[in-house]
Amino acid sequence: MTDPAAWLERIRALPLAGRVRVMNVCGGHERSISRAGLRALLPPQVELIPGPGCPVCVCPEEDIYDAIALAQRDEVTLVAFGDMLRVPCNAPKAQPRSLEQARAAGGDVRPIASPAEAVRIARDNPARQVVFFMAGFETTTAPLAGMIAEGLPDNLSILLSARLTWPAVAMLLASGEVGFDALVAPGHVATVMGPEEWDFVPAAHNIPAAVAGFGADSLLASLYSVLRQHVEDRAFLDNCYPVLVRPGGNPTARRLMDECFEVVDANWRGIGVLPASGFALRPHLAAHDARLRFDLAADPHRKRAGEMPPGCDCARVVLGRIYPDQCRLFGAACTPSSPVGPCMVSDEGACRIWWSTGKRECRPEDAPPAPVTGDA
């Protein structure tokens, strides 16, 4: 069945006895949900909670700080995906606080849309050192592995800040403060890594889960699945994106990622250090590791684990503890034109998504979720 209206009818027919909180992990899912106005169409008992699925939002500030420092070197051209240029870090006012500000101060900073552009820029500028600051989840890390496998120019190095998606959800489930009753897992990640990564949600925690794509039909199918599981008190992992998601994922992509990266403990901004949650370049790629090439020794004063800018509640938004419009700065000090926190910067950040689909004012944190009449 592919008709969204039919899925809505099936969802509305479910005998939901009380509130059901469904976390959608992916920022792309939140964007689709908000733009389609799905919250306004679902039964009032169903709450859709944005989760930790924005790689820009969780990129630790020490990595942003290192990227800014590299961008200010005369011999360096720094390239990054466009969203990363505006993410602020907690630097002194006299220093650039974002890559965008570093560029305004004279740094050679260039936005790119794909890893292939980094290679092209390096080959077009052989006399310069080109650094690719790569923050992302599995779906951007896989193309990076493909780029590495094809061979890197000698003057190209990588400042890697890549993360696995599932460890943040595992942390929430193990925290003792589980804020959701069902989970919608990201279809693009499952396309690469396989749906099996999400088996732990129902198997270890008895929480319904479904893998979803980004169209209304797949999202509504996944919501129907987890809500029905909740009603029937049985939890399993359902694949509601079978057109692309296969058992085991993409074997070629996984092989290349394993050849290029090792899994390490990693810091998530707003969350802290999560075991075995990040990617690092393997030793045979040390010549292309920007941290080694430019001797970016870890500065303990820059490692602000879990911290956001002063007054910013992005950390709790990322963790699904509050809704974006319950942040103290939302729509006031923090807007897309002058973002304070990373969630207002990225197209996958919940605050930016809610703002762009009509939510413009902050509501009290202790207020219950308001009935949604617009697209958010």
Percent range of helical residues = 25-40%
Radius of gyration: 21 Å
User: Which strands sit side by side, in order, in the main sheet?
Assistant: 2-1-7-8-9
CATH topology: Rossmann fold
What structural class is derived from the secondary structure elements? alpha/beta
Poorly predicted spans: 371-376
With helices defined by DSSP (H or I, 4 residues minimum), what is the helix count? 16
Query: What distance separates the N and C termini?
Result: 26 Å
Elements, N to C (H/E): HEHHEHHEHEHEHEHEHHEHEHEEHHH
Q: Quote the beta fraction.
A: 15-25%
Kindly provide the name of the CATH class: Alpha Beta
What's the shape?
globular
Total E-strand runs: 11
Short description:
With 376 residues, the chain is α/β, with parallel strands linked by helices. It has helices at 4-13, 27-35, 38-41, 55-58, 61-71, 99-104, 115-124, 138-149, 166-174, 187-193, 200-205, 216-232, 251-260, 290-293, 314-318, 350-356, and strands at residues 20-24, 46-50, 76-81, 108-112, 129-136, 156-162, 182-186, 209-212, 237-239, 261-268, 272-281. It has a single domain, classed as HypD, alpha/beta domain 2 (Rossmann fold, 3-Layer(aba) Sandwich).
